[in-house]
Amino acid sequence: MNATEYLVVCRATGDASTVSPCQTGFGPQIIQGYVIDPANNGYYDQITQPLDTTAAVGFWTASFVFTLGLYFAVKGIGYVIGMIRSA
Fold it and tell me: In the chain, what are the domain boundaries?
């Protein structure tokens, strides 16, 4: 059923004189929307979970420490190469 369909939504028009199924001040508008098959609800519920901040902090810390360690390792190698060149 995953398909693009035409949907009727109520949008603000500011015109209270229109007769429509929408409440006063709103009018119907036809838009295209993607309709999801109910069989896929589990997948979409799973990927729209809130951010796990503990895991995010862990990934950020690991990345930062790795980058910092790589920087100091390369800086140390450069220092050793500089000493060899000056000898």
Answer: 1-49, 50-87
